């Protein structure tokens, strides 16, 4: 127990020492250990604490008692010092007053000196700062002046100097800050002003493109004329040099020999081109501002827009050549400006850009020309358009733009030009044919004869031997057609000029276009002429004669083409003219029309026939309509003397065959129900006249009775009925040697039935009244046999 108490006292002693030596903020854990100890430890600890306090109080009291006398002595000394301190204070105050009074004047003078020194220093500082600021102000003033006189590029250079050199030296001043803030605004103002000038320039250059292009194209025309004149003089001098011994200078000799090209200078358009300074200025300004790419893009974009406007034609452009000229002038002016910009600026436009722009424009131009040229119906307008396109192409080619596609387009337009020429010449041919009298050309004397052969290559030794007056076989339309064909060749040649093609190609083009004229236009006009109702047999005969002479003249047309193209006969490898086939076809058509019209005329006469099919006795002479028909045929075939023999013979044979067929159809007409023997005899008289006409050889060249064979069917049929030789017909039917070989059983049956009906009504066989039954029985028997023959033929078929 005692041991425990001793340990507790020792622990309390340690805690007290720890409390005394430890900060009061950390006493908590120490005091907690008092409560965590044994029971009643708190009471013992409090007792121990009170004992400790009492010990400390005794020590404090001892210490105070030890130092109390010293404290009292210190207080006494302090009270003595206070009196001395008061005296010292009075003395110091008095001394200070006197000193202050004495230093007032010095202070005033010192302050004046200080103020003067400060002013002097400020003045020096101001002078130094002004020396720094004056150049800035001078440069800014210079900038304002440059802005006022519109020297914007110099103004930008001044701004650059201000920003890089002058303003950094005085950047601390407020006016410098104002300047620095204003400089970007001035730059934007310069950009806006220069851009506004550029816009004005672009608008102005768009309006003046027409004039620029017109001047450029005129200068090309002048150069071409000079070159043509030079070429002509060169050819003359070549001939003179060849036949003379004159020694020409070497350079001139080389020119004559074709070794040197004629020096042609570039187009001088300085008097026409506008002032390009807005472009240069704007380019420099944007380049200095580091925005050159923006300017290039803007310029190219605007020029592309203008190009689209320039390439857009007026809707009525195709009506006049002036419309095309304005269109080409604007385009040439546009690309002349672009070429100028390309050569005087660095990078604003490039060759690749101009080539791309030209390719785009060329496609549009070709499409526009292809469309508008298709509306042109006047060959003169198409020819003028071609000349404009050639000058247009040559002008742009002089500036380095490829124009091959334009010349390819000219070949398309050439086809269209030929079409308009063909339409025009079709009208000329029609007028010539309408005005022709279709009779041989009369010439009263040698002078008139020479006039005709000067227009048309006609040669006839037999006709030359005849005396005047005489007639040429062709009509007036032949030399006129020949002249118009030559005029067509000239007109076609005009388009082929200046196409930069060889003489051989031009020769080939002329031949092709002339072939079209002959095979399509002239052929069509001839065919239409032949089909016209007012063209009679006489006119058709003359047309055949005319086409024969035109056909013979084709070789002279070929020589004419060769001469105008300067192509020697040995080098020509092109197609020949197709006039031979054209005129042959026209002749064949005319011949066919002759056959048709002859048949139509025969039909007209046949329609006048007025037979009395029930007459008992014939009139004793041929019918009037038939005699008129034969007289007409005789007079018509006399006109055929100028036709080729085969044509006249074919026409005559065709007429006789058609007459025979028409007469046969008249007999067998289904509407004709009865026919008497008297009518058959009268019909026989008419056929006899036809046979007499055929035997009179109305057209020479027939052998024997060839022409009479056209009526053999009628003759055998009528003989059969006139002789009443039915026994022979039926016995020899089918035999090659039959007397009635050309009589068809169905034909004989039809005619016999018509006569049978007549006999019943009119008692045509009254003279055989005694044998009436036998005759009637014979007819019935023949009819039955004929029917059996007809039925046998149909079954065999």
Structure description:
This protein has 797 residues and is mainly α. The chain contains 26 helices and two strands. Strands 1-2 form a two-stranded antiparallel sheet. Helix 12 (404-435) runs antiparallel to helix 15. The longest helix has 108 residues, at 41-148. It is elongated and about 215 Å long. The N and C termini lie far apart (172 Å). Mean pLDDT is 80; it is low at 231-272 and 764-768. Keywords: Exocytosis, Transport. One of its GO terms (biological process) is Golgi to plasma membrane transport. Residues 48-217 form the Exocyst complex component EXOC6/Sec15 N-terminal domain.
Secondary-structure element order, as H and E?
A: HHHHHHHHHHHHEHHEHHHHHHHHHHHH
What does the overall shape look like?
elongated
Kindly provide the radius of gyration, computed on alpha-carbon positions and rounded to a whole number of angstroms. Answer: 67 Å
Q: Main beta sheet: strand number and arrangement?
A: 2 strands, antiparallel
Strand order of the largest sheet: 1-2
Low-confidence parts lasting 5 or more residues at pLDDT below 50? 231-272, 764-768
State the secondary-structure class: mainly alpha
Q: In DSSP terms, counting alpha (H) and pi (I) runs of 4 or more, how many helices?
A: 26
Overall pLDDT score: 80
Helix percent band: over 70%
Ends apart, CA distance between termini:
172 Å
Number of strands: 2
Give the DSSP E fraction (strand runs of 2 or more residues).
under 5%
Pfam families: EXOC6_Sec15_N, Sec15_C
Function: Component of the exocyst complex involved in the docking of exocytic vesicles with fusion sites on the plasma membrane.
Family: Belongs to the SEC15 family.
Keywords: Exocytosis, Transport
């Amino acid at each position: 127990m005692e041991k425990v108490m001793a340990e507790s006292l020792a622990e309390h002693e340690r805690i007290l020492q720890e409390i005394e030596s430890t900060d009061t903020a950390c006493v908590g854990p120490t005091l907690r250990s008092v409560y965590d100890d044994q029971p009643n430890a708190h009471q013992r600890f409090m007792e121990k604490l009170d004992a400790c306090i009492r010990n400390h109080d005794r020590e404090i009291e001892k210490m105070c008692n030890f130092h109390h006398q010293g404290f009292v002595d210190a207080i006494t000394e302090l009270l003595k010092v206070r009196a001395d301190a008061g005296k010292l204070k009075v003395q110091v105050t008095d001394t200070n007053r006197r000193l202050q009074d004495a230093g007032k004047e010095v202070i005033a003078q010192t302050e004046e000196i200080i103020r003067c020194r400060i002013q002097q220093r400020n003045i020096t500082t101001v002078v130094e700062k002004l020396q720094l600021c004056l150049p800035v102000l001078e440069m800014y003033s210079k900038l304002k002046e440059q802005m006022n006189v519109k020297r914007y590029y110099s103004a930008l250079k001044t701004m650059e100097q201000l920003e890089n050199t002058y303003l950094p030296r005085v950047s601390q001043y407020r006016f410098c800050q104002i300047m620095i803030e204003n400089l970007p605004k001035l730059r934007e103002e310069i950009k806006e002003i220069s851009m506004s000038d550029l816009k004005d320039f672009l608008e102005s250059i768009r309006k003046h493109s027409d004039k620029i292009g017109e001047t450029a194209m005129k200068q090309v025309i002048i150069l071409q004329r000079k070159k043509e004149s030079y070429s002509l003089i060169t050819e003359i001098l070549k001939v003179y040099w060849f036949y003379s011994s004159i020694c020409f200078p070497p350079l001139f000799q080389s020119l004559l020999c074709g070794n040197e090209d004629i020096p042609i200078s570039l187009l001088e358009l300085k008097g026409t081109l506008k002032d390009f300074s807005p472009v240069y200025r704007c380019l420099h300004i944007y380049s200095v501002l580091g925005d050159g790419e923006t300017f290039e893009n803007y310029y190219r974009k605007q020029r592309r827009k203008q190009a689209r406007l320039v390439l857009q034609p007026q809707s009525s452009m195709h009506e006049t050549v002036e419309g095309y000229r304005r269109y080409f002038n604007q385009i040439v002016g546009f690309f002349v400006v672009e070429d100028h910009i390309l050569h005087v600026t660095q990078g604003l436009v490039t060759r690749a850009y101009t080539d791309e722009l030209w390719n785009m424009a060329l496609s549009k131009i070709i499409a526009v020309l292809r469309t508008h040229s298709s509306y042109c119906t006047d060959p003169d307008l198409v020819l003028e358009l071609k000349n404009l396109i050639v000058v247009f192409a040559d002008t742009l080619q002089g500036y380095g733009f490829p124009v091959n596609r334009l010349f390819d387009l000219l070949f398309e337009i050439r086809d269209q030009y030929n079409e308009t020429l063909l339409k025009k010449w079709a009208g000329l041919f029609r007028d010539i044919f309408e005005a022709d009298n279709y009779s041989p050309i009369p010439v009263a004397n040698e002078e008139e004869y020479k006039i005709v052969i000067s227009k048309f290559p006609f040669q006839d030794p037999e006709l030359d031997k005849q005396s005047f007056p005489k007639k040429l076989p062709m009509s007036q339309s032949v030399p006129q057609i020949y002249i118009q064909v030559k005029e067509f060749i000239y007109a076609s040649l005009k388009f082929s000029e200046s196409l930069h093609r060889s003489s051989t190609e031009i020769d080939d083009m002329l031949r092709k276009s002339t072939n079209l004229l002959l095979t399509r236009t002239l052929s069509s006009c001839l065919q239409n002429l032949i089909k016209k109702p007012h063209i009679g047999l006489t006119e058709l005969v003359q047309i055949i004669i005319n086409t024969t002479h035109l056909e013979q003249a084709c070789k002279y047309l070929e020589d004419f083409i060769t001469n105008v193209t300067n192509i020697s006969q040995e080098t020509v490898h092109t197609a020949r003219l197709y006039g031979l086939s054209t005129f042959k076809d026209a002749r064949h058509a005319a011949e066919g029309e002759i056959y048709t019209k002859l048949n139509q005329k025969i039909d007209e006469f046949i329609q006048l026939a007025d037979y009395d099919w029930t007459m008992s006795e014939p009139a004793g002479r041929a019918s009037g309509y038939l005699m008129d028909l034969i007289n007409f045929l005789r007079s018509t075939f006399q006109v055929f003397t100028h036709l080729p023999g085969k044509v006249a013979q074919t026409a005559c044979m065709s007429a006789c065959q058609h007459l025979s067929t028409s007469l046969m159809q008249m007999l067998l007409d289904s509407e004709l129900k009865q026919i008497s023997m008297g009518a058959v005899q009268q019909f026989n008289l008419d056929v006899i006249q036809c046979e007499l006409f055929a035997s009179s050889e109305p057209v020479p060249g027939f052998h024997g009775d060839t022409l009479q064979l056209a009526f053999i069917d009628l003759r055998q049929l009528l003989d059969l009925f006139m002789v009443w030789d039915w026994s022979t017909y039926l016995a020899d039917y089918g035999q090659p040697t039959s007397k009635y070989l050309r009589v068809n059983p169905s034909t004989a049956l039809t005619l016999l039935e018509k006569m049978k009906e007549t006999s019943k009504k009119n008692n045509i066989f009254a003279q055989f009244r005694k044998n009436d039954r036998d005759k009637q029985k014979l007819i019935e028997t023949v009819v039955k046999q004929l029917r059996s023959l007809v039925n046998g033929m149909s079954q065999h078929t």
